[in-house]
Amino acid sequence: MSRAMPRRTTRALLGLGLGCALALTPGGCSGSSGGGTASSCAAQEVTVSPDSASPGETVVVHGEYYTDGCGDAVEAGAAPSPAVALTDVPLVLTGDDGNEHLVATLDAEGTLGEITYTLTVPQDLAVGPVALRLGDAAPVTLTVTSP
After folding, report:
1. 33, 50, 102, 123, 144 from 120: Cα distances, Å
2. Is the pTM of this model over 0.70?
3. Positive or negative CA dihedral for 48, 53, 54, 57?
């Protein structure tokens, strides 16, 4: 037979759990209290449009947030350092065979670290899904279709 916990004990345990959760959560834009890491920086993102094409056709690859830093991590009394657009960002295609094809190395521009690249689908890619990766962004799928 189970017994319900007294209300005071339940509230105390709930408060203790919530307090522990808050103590473990990094606060604010600058990560941990003594940190310089910017946990609020946006993760690198990539899109491809259209998301299917035949060899020889073109697609537009667009990426954002390819920066070194994000300008919101500030030490007390200091001005935020500007985000710097990354250079030499690899654009890699990986087919079903697992072979990686370095298509280009690209430079981001502006404070948002934007990259726009017109990709001609290589003739040697097999028909089917291909993982397209730009820098550290999660890969997106480009479907190679029959000509």
Report:
1. 47, 12, 13, 9, 11
2. no
3. negative
